[in-house]
Every structure is written in C-alpha cells, then in structure tokens.
Amino acid sequence: MVVQDSADAGDSRLGVRLQPFLHQVGGHLSVMTYDEHTVCKPLISREHRFYEALPPAMKRFTPQYKGTITVHLHKDSRGCLSLVAHPLKESREPFKVSPESAAVAKRHPRQHAQWAQSPAESHSLAKLHTHPQVSSLALEDANGNQVEARSFNPWGLHCHQAHLTRLCSEYPENQRHRFLLLENVVSRHTHPCILDLKMGTRQHGDDASEEKKARHVKKCAQSTSGRLGVRVCGMQVYQTDKKYYLCKDKYYGRKLSVEGFRQTLHQFLHDGTRLRTELLEPILSQLQALLSVIKSQSSYRFYSSSLLIIYDGQQLPERPPGSRHPQEASGEARAGPQGGLPRVDIRMIDFAHTTYKGSKDGHTTYDGPDPGYIFGLQNLIGILQDIQEGV
User: Fold this and answer.
1) How many Å apart are CA 206 and CA 299, to the nearest integer?
2) Best label site of 288, 316, 326, 348, fewest CB within 10 Å?
3) How far is it, in rounded angstroms, from Cα 249 to Cα 232?
C-alpha cells in the first residue's frame, strides 16, 4: 500500500507502508512485506555484501536480491505506529550502513514475547484478522500440545513487535534505517508449508565475543546441531482436513532429540490426512543439487544461516490414468499445478555471519568448502531418504 507521509504538513513524499510478513516461521529479525513478490529485512552490511558478490551457482538457492530501501517509523493521528519504506533511486549502489541501523538489526530479545495491545499493535492486529489470505493457525507448545488457534503466525508478529519496540525506545521517529529487498519465494504458494532449518555444527560468527561464542557452542552441543549439523528453527504445515496451520518455533527445535528431529521431518510432510510422498523426490533432488554447489564453494562458511524448504499445502489434482508420476519427471521440481508436479522451493537465507575469501571482514580466511554445512545437508538427505524408503 502506498501512503502519504502525514507526519509533516505539506510533505508530499510517498512511501510504502510495510506489513509484517505473515509466514515468517523463524529467525529473530523482523521480516516485512513490501509488495506481493518482495519482502524486506533490516540491513546488516555483511549480508548485503554477500548478496552483491553472490556466486552464480548459488543464485538458484537464495532469494533474488532486489536492492535496498530506507525505512522510518511513522505515527498517524491516532498514535498508531508503522514502518514506512522509501525506495532509493540507486538502490544497488554500494553504501556504508550506519552504526545505528546495524545496532538495531543485531540486538534481539532472548525470551518469548506476546503481542501487546498498544494502539499501534491493536491496529495492526485488526488488519491481520481481516486479511483475506490468512488461514487460522493452530499453535503447539514445547511439549507438542495444541493451544489456542489464531488467524496469523505469532512468530512474525513477535519479531515485528520487538523491532518496533527497539525503534521507539532507542531512536527518534524520523531516524532513517536501511533495509534489504529480497524476493518473496513464499508468494508462489497458496498454502505455504515452511520448514526453517539452522544449518551447520557451528552457529557463532568470527566476530562473536567469548560470552556469545560459549553460549552458541552450548546450544549446538545440546541440540541436533551438534549431532546432525542441522536443527529445526521454525515450521508451519497446512492441515487440509481442518484448514489451518500447525506451527512450531525455534524453542521447540532446540529440545528435539535425533529421533524427534526425524519425527518432525515426517510431520512437516504430513497434511493431516496423509504423508505427501510425492514431495520427497523433488525435495531430495534439490538438496542433492545444493550439496554439490556447497561442495564447490571454497572458503565459504555459512555460520548461523538457515535453509528453507517450502511447498504448497494445496494438493494437486489426481493424475489421469497413464500419466507420469512426478518422480518420473526430471528437472521440473518447481512446476506448478498446471504441470501436474508438486511445487518445491529450497532457499538458503540469513547471511549476517557468512564469511568467505574477499569478504573484507578482516576475519579468518578458510580453505575448502564448509564442512559443518555439508555434514548437516548429508544428514538431512539421509533422514529424508529413510522416510522415502519406509513408505
């Protein structure tokens, strides 16, 4: 939505009012919706440089980089707060991120938070409840018990609230902050089922303090990150029988055993009535292709990055007799319903701590491909193959 900034009388500047991204299942930075096919997130200079220097082979497995925008906090006449974005004329030009913007992006709460009923938040919730594309959402607590059903994904609103709170308390209303514009891969799917996986055996960056390093090493050792090189960081699965999403967050993922991780992968592929076996081949095919790409990227270390697996919870119509099974068709994993194949997207995201030769970060330069990421991918592929063989 394009709005006029009414904060200053006579100001004719136009901006885009950002909305929380309703399908954010993991992470800690607020992801916002810019338009139907574009999301944005607070800019971190290292991540921005990564997208600008992205190796061609990796572009298939990352969201398309669309440039940058400036964002400011806007308060309307009712006191409701929102974020308004202003596209840059030369959005792809190199720039230096301000220390203030970098600080906002890096700080985040370490505890659960509920969506408070301030005037701004009440206004946002009212919009979300009437959003035509939002299905109800069934939440599950850390023990797997279903709790209150709501009409939006609570994790994205948790991150959005935390970001607004920081901006309100630490910076003036007219402070400009820089955001990255990225492709909204989820928009391809009618009922997006999303699995956010934290990849690798190490999660701290080279610039981490000793205290932060120790904290992340402990998290990895106590979770499947240490044993498998991968852990669940968030998930939503559309249940076709009851017409809602089941959702789990990163706190659930940290507590999973290896067997619990296997069961969660199985649940991710289950629509409430059956296991979506037709998804296994396209997912495995893309993961194998990604593994080959990662093995070819010398010096890259994708510390604390995530991998998204996305498919459409809206099932394809049954194939007519004699037609090909999706597993028999090669190279068409992303075809839509018209092609009679399941639509699957695999995307690497979150590169704030990624380092590589020539990244100009002044940190360690590594040799060879990322062993922790490869270890995680191989285990993920192996578990999915076990599920496939056990069907």
Assistant:
1) 14
2) 288
3) 8
Query: Residue 111: helix, strand or coil by DSSP?
Result: coil
Terminal Cα distance for the chain, rounded: 46
Burial of 337 (0-12, 13-18, 19+ CB in 10 A): middle
**Which residues is 249 bridged to in the sheet?**
234
Q: How far is CA 319 from the centre of its chain?
A: 32
* CA 338 to centroid of chain Cα atoms: 27
Alpha helices by DSSP H, the chain: 45-52, 99-106, 119-129, 154-170, 210-221, 224-228, 250-254, 258-268, 280-295, 371-390
Nearest to 26 by CA among 310, 274, 330, 360: 310
Instruction: Find tokens 């507590």 and name the residue.
Output: 255
Torsion of the alpha carbons at 37, 232, 135 and 110, rounded to the nearest 10: -90
Q: How far, in Å, CA of 97 to CA of 306, rounded? A: 23
Instruction: Enumerate the H helices of 8-84 as residue ranges.
Output: 45-52
And the tokens for 110? 């370490």
Q: In the sheet that 344-349 helps form, which strands lie side by side, from edge to edge?
A: 146-150, 136-140, 244-249, 230-239, 192-199, 306-312, 344-349
- The count of other CB atoms within 10 Å of the CB of residue 204 is 18
Burial class (CB in 10 A: 0-12, 13-18, 19+), 73: buried
- Helix and strand numbers, DSSP H then E, in the chain: 10, 17
Whole-number Å distance between alpha carbons of 365 and 358? 9
- Angle between helix axes 99-106 and 154-170 (nearest 10 degrees) is 140
pTM above 0.85, yes or no: no
Query: 38-91, pLDDT tens digit by residue?
Result: 999 999 999 999 999 999 999 999 999 999 999 998 888 887 888 999 887 544
Is the pLDDT at 334 greater than 80? The verdict is no
Single-letter residue type at 128: L
3-class secondary structure, 241: coil
DSSP 300-332: -EEET-EEEEEEESSPPPPPPTTPPPGGGS-S-
Give 30-41 pLDDT, tens digit per residue: 899 999 999 999
What type of residue is 24? Answer: Q
216 close to 340: Cβ distance less than 8 angstroms: no
280 Cβ partners below 8 Å, 6+ apart?
Answer: 269, 384, 387, 388, 391
